[in-house]
Amino acid sequence: xxxxxxxxxxxxxxxxxxxxxxxxxxxxxxxxxxxxxxxxxxxxxxxxxxxxxxxxxxxxxxxxxxxxxxxxxxxxxxxxxxxxxxxxxxxxxxxxxxxxxxxxxxxxxxxx
Length: 112
Description:
Elements: H1 9-21, H2 27-38, H3 44-56, E1 60-67, E2 75-81, H4 83-100
Helix pairs in contact: 1-2, 1-3, 2-3
């Protein structure tokens, strides 16, 4: 795997959450998705730091939505995965799968 596409575990989980949430992907639901599906606690600070890194690397882009009353007039920042982000997810998961081969581990993908 190229160093360019290496992800840490938080980055991988967040990219996959962006993929799952699609156009509704912003900080709060992304964090909730990661925690709910992975069972892993992630702080708000870690969430936004990782999203900033992913954007700097070109794995996601973001844009501000319209200001909302419930946020005191502040806008939400929405995230969208880019092709480089998809490649990073594929390469990272491929590497994990290759490492797991022959270890006698039972992999459960998608509840199967």
